[in-house]
Amino acid sequence: MAWQPTPYTAPLLVAAVASFGFAVYGTANRSRGGHALLWSFVAVAGAAGVWSLAYAAQLSATTLGPTLFFNRFVWLGSAGLAVAWPAFVFSYVDRTAWLGRRRFALLWVVPVAVAAAVWTAGVDPLFYADPSLVDAGGYRVLSYTPTPALLGFVGYTYTVNLFTFIVLGYAAVSRDGVFRRQAAVLFLAGVAPLALSAAGIAGVVGPDAGFIDFTPIAFSGTSALLAWVVFRYRILDVSPIARDAVFANLSDGVVVCDADGRVVDTNDPAEALFPDAELGVRADDAFDDVPAVADAVTDPAADDEFRVTVNGDDAPRFLTVDVHDITGPGTTRGGTVLLFRDVTERETLQRRYRALIEKSPNVIAVCGEDGLLRYVSPSIERLLGHRPTEIEGRPIIDLVHPEDRREAQQAFERAFDSAEPQSLTHRIARADGSWRRFETVIERLFADTGEVVITATDVTDARRYEQRLQVLNRVLRHDLKNDTNVIGGYADLLRDHVDEEGDPYLDIIDRKVRTLTHLSDQAREIDVALHSDAGRAEIDLSELVERLCESLSSSFPEATVTVSVPESAVVSADELLESAVRNVLENAVVHNDGDDPRVEATVVADGDRFRLDVADDGPGIPPVERTVFSEARETALEHASGLGLWLVHWIVTESGGDMEIDTREPTGTVVRMWLPRAAEERE
C-alpha cells in the first residue's frame, strides 16, 4: 500500500509515542497515588496514543479503503478518551460519587455505543455521508458530509469536556500552592485540543478542501504539559485529597501538620530525626532546633524546598525539606506535609570536593556547549587576577590569546565529541593585560550532559625556567666549549711557533678571547635580568628611544640613525626595558656588514599598546634564528648565535608584551616590540 507524507504525520507520531510512554510509566508506577487516579491517567494516555497513531495512519493512506479502515481505530481512541478524561478529572478532584457504577454509566454508555456501531455498521453512512479523498495541496485527505449522528456525538463530547473544564477551573481558582498549578496545567492541557479542534471545524486552520481533525495533533503539545504536571508537580505521587495515607515503609521522614500547625501524623524515620514531633504538638515545639521547618508550617509563603542541619548522635545530619500544602475548601490551607530526606553523605562529599576545588593550585572551570563559563574556581583570582563572578557567564574563548584561539576552539569542540580528554598549551589573559601560559585539559563532565570540565595549570614559570636552562646549557656545552677547544688547539700550535710565523695564531687567539669575553658579558647581563628583583615601571618609550639612538650615533659615527617617535609614549614595562632596547639598536649596527649602516627606530600607537620598530639594512637574521624565537625553544642544531635577542625576548615577555622578527626587502631586518600602555595612557 502506498503512503503519503503530510505536515501532520510527525506531530501525530510524537503525540503517540509520548502518550504510550505515559501509559507505560503509569503502569510501571501503579503502587503510587490513588487507584482511580492512576488507572484513569493510564486510560487517558493510552486512548490518546491510539487516537494519534491511528490518525497518523489515516492521513498517510492514499486510497479511500485504507483511510476508512484506520478511521475505525480513530473512533476507538476518541471514544476511549471521552470516557477516560472525565474519569481522570473526577478522580483528581475527588468526586468519587461520579465514579460509581450508575453515574459513571452516563459517561461511558454513549462512547461505547458509538465505538460498537463504528466497528459493526461502519462509519459510512453512519457518520460520514459520501466520503471521498480530496487534494489538500500536495496530499489527499478525507472529505465527507457529517450526519446527524456525528453532530450529536460531537455535541455530546463538547458538553462533557466543557463540564470537566469548569471543574478543573474551579479547582485552579479555589486551591493554592502546588495544587493550583496542577489544576491550571491540566486545564490548559484539556482546553488546547478542544480549542484547536473547534478552530479546524470553523475553517480557521487547516486546508481549504477536506477536513483535518486537530484534536490528536494538539496532543503533541499537550504531552509536554502532561509531562510537566506528572514529573514537576508529581500528580501521581500526591493528590489534593489523598493525604491521610502515609506509607510506613517510606525511607524518608514524613510529618503531617493540620491547618492549626499541630502534628497529626509521622512515620518512623521522622520520629528518629525529631523526637519532639509527637502527635498534637505544635510545630514551633516539635521543630524548636530548626525554626525554618516551623516557619514552613505556619507561613504560606515559605519555600517549597530548602535545607536544614540537625544534630545527630555522632555528627550533624543534613536534610532537604520538601513542603507540600494540603488544600482545603476554598483557598484556605488545610495543612502541610513535610518530607525530610537525609542527604548527609551527599553533602559531605560535595563539601570535600568543593574544598579540593577551591584550594586547588589550578584553575578549574565548567563550560557549556554554548561556550559560556558556568563555574570558575576561586583560584582564578589568585592566578590571573579575575574574580569568578566577573568571569562566569562570559565566553571562555575571550580569555585565550588571539593566536591560540583556533586551536583552543578545536580542542573544545573535540571534547564534546570524544570521551577522551583533550590537552593543549595556550596563553590566558591576566586582569592586568599580561599573558600566562597554561597547560589545559578539557573533558566531558558527564556522558549525558552538555558540559565540559576544564583544568588549567599555569606553566609559565616552568616553561620560562626550562627555556632558560636550555639556553644557558647550550652556551656552556656548545659555544663556550667549542671556543675553548679552538683556543686550546691554537695554543698547542704556538708551542712550536715562537717566531713571526706564530703571529696569525696569536690573532686567532685574540679574536676568540674577545668572543668569549663578549659572550661572558652577555651571559652576565642575562643573569642579572633573570635573577634581579626588578618590577614594573612606567617608562616613556619616546624619551628612551631618542636617548639611546643619540648614544648609538655617538658610539658609531659611521652609522645613520633615524628616529620617529610621538611626543609621549608611556608604557608599563620591566625596569630592564632600557637594556633590551639598547641591545636591539646595537645589534642593528654591529652585525651590519655595510660601510654605511642605516637604522630606523619608530614608535607608534597600536590599540592599547605602543609598538617599537627597529629596522636596519644589514644582512638579516637567518630563518633558523627566527624559528628559535617563535617556537621559544633551543636544540643542539637550532640555536641563536648570540644571547642578545634572548635577553630582549625575555624582558619584553616579562613586560607583558610581544616580540616579532621580520625580514626587510631587499635586505635587512625589522624587530618589532609591543608594550602595554601605562594606566594613565589608557584613560
TrEMBL record:
Pfam families: HATPase_c, HisKA_7TM, PAS_4. Its EC number is 2.7.13.3. Coiled coil: none annotated. Residues 349-419 form the PAS domain. The chain crosses the membrane at residues 6-25, 37-61, 73-93, 105-129, 149-173, 185-205, 211-231. It comes from the Archaea. It catalyses: ATP + protein L-histidine = ADP + protein N-phospho-L-histidine. Keywords: Kinase, Membrane, Phosphoprotein, Transferase, Transmembrane, Transmembrane helix. GO terms for molecular function: phosphorelay sensor kinase activity. Residues 475-679 form the Histidine kinase domain. InterPro entries: HATPase_C_sf (IPR036890), HATPase_dom (IPR003594), His_kinase_dom (IPR005467), HisK_dim/P_dom (IPR003661), HisK_dim/P_sf (IPR036097), HisKA_7TM (IPR031621), PAS (IPR000014), PAS-like_dom_sf (IPR035965). This is histidine kinase.
